[in-house]
Amino acid sequence: MNLAITDVRLTPILVADPPLLNRQGLHQPYTPRLIVEVVTADGVTGVGETYGDATYLELAAPFAERLKGCRVSDLNGLFTVADQVAVDASRVENAVDVGGLRGVQTADKLRLSVVSGFEVACLDALGKALGLPVHALLGGKLRDSVAYSAYLFYKWAAHPDGVPAGKDDWGAALDPAGVVEQARRFTERYGFTSFKLKGGVFPPDEEIAAIKALAEAFPGHPLRLDPNGAWSVETSVKVARELGDVLEYLEDPALGTPAMAEVAERTGVPLATNMCVTTFAEIPEAFTKGAVQVVLSDHHYWGGLRNTQQLAAVCRTFGVGVSMHSNTHLGISLAAMTHVAATVPNLHHACDSHYPWQSEDVLTERLAFDGGRVAVSDAPGLGVELDRERLAALHRRWLDDDGALRDRDDAAAMRVADPQWVTPALPRW
Ligand SMILES: O=C([O-])C(=O)C[C@H](O)[C@@H](O)C(=O)[O-]
Ligand SMILES: [Mg+2]
């Protein structure tokens, strides 16, 4: 068996995205992703997926060049290769990232986000070569399916007039009744039993009312609210007090570990994060201060599936829960998330996934949610197959774009409808 990588293909694509609202603004009608393929000397192809904005592409290309000749089993070596690729310092902020929703942005985190796409592609190829599913390469599954939660968004019915965009049939959700209606559709279509509302869009009282309406419509179901750090400590404490008895957890109510620690100290509501703990370096301060009770891992920016397992082990050591964060992603990443989630013993919360919002995919067959769960595939590798025609079509869209959509920019999308819009200063409320 020759596991040497002889070819690497990088295909940037633009994927349709509905008009979802968050505290930055509005999702653009198309969002960038990068599809990674590694091909071994034996002709086995593995696929991976990661962020597709320009900064990631700039790093992925030289990384891919260096990978030729390495073996798909050299997973630890991927980090060594990544360290050899220089990151242009002007491309990272060393502060909260430009998208503003995923915590600090550093050169290392950028590297890890690129590595993750390649790690998944290598695991897929290795699994196919050995006839083993990815979860077996990660030590074996502990469950046959993984629970996901319905990811509710405040939403417009359509993208702003004049913006070329696909259509969706979800309708608008701009008040408690609209949110409950969206949640009902999620349960009808996918069987989800827990719900997360993306907050930070409307004043907290309106979002409190939406959660209360959900609690009334779905009594006893786990509920979460995530304003992406839009609130002050005082506001966070007030919301936690109002919603304490219905929330499973409150996600990133305030920005940064010190603020989260203060909120945690003053309320009994567990706090989750995908913003103040997004790297191993951020763990000691957050865990010793008791700032978070659940870390939402994202294998993209934590550096892959095996780093996600390591994160879960650290969380277990400190008695901190673990679950998964999600951004706009396709079926390759959902398959990867499902494989790793199946191997994590201390996964006690349903994971986030944007996948239901993505009407387009690059797979021959979409992954299905049944009772809110995704079955863990036992087929070799990830258990997914690329649809090359779909991939080519979405790549064509990327090629045809004049550059406006090649970097995700939710504030720019909002400015089309509201020219005065600027990313709100934090805390907003
Ligand atoms: O905090 C989170 O869960 C996210 O940031 C997830 C996504 O980025 C979501 O907020 C979005 O895409 O608008
Ligand atoms: Mg979040």
From TrEMBL:
Pathway: Carbohydrate acid metabolism; D-glucarate degradation; 2,5-dioxopentanoate from D-glucarate: step 1/2. Keywords: Lyase, Magnesium, Metal-binding. Its cofactor is Mg(2+). InterPro entries: DgoD-like (IPR034593), Enolase-like_C_sf (IPR036849), Enolase-like_N (IPR029017), Enolase_C-like (IPR029065), GlucD-like (IPR034598), Mandelate_racemase_C (IPR013342), Mandelate_racemase_N_dom (IPR013341). Residues 176-270 form the Mandelate racemase/muconate lactonizing enzyme C-terminal domain. It comes from Streptomyces indiaensis. CDD domains: D-glucarate_dehydratase. It catalyses: D-glucarate = 5-dehydro-4-deoxy-D-glucarate + H2O. PANTHER family: D-GALACTONATE DEHYDRATASE-RELATED, GLUCARATE DEHYDRATASE. It holds the Pfam family MR_MLE_N. This is glucarate dehydratase. Belongs to the mandelate racemase/muconate lactonizing enzyme family. GlucD subfamily. It comes from the Bacteria. Its EC number is 4.2.1.40.
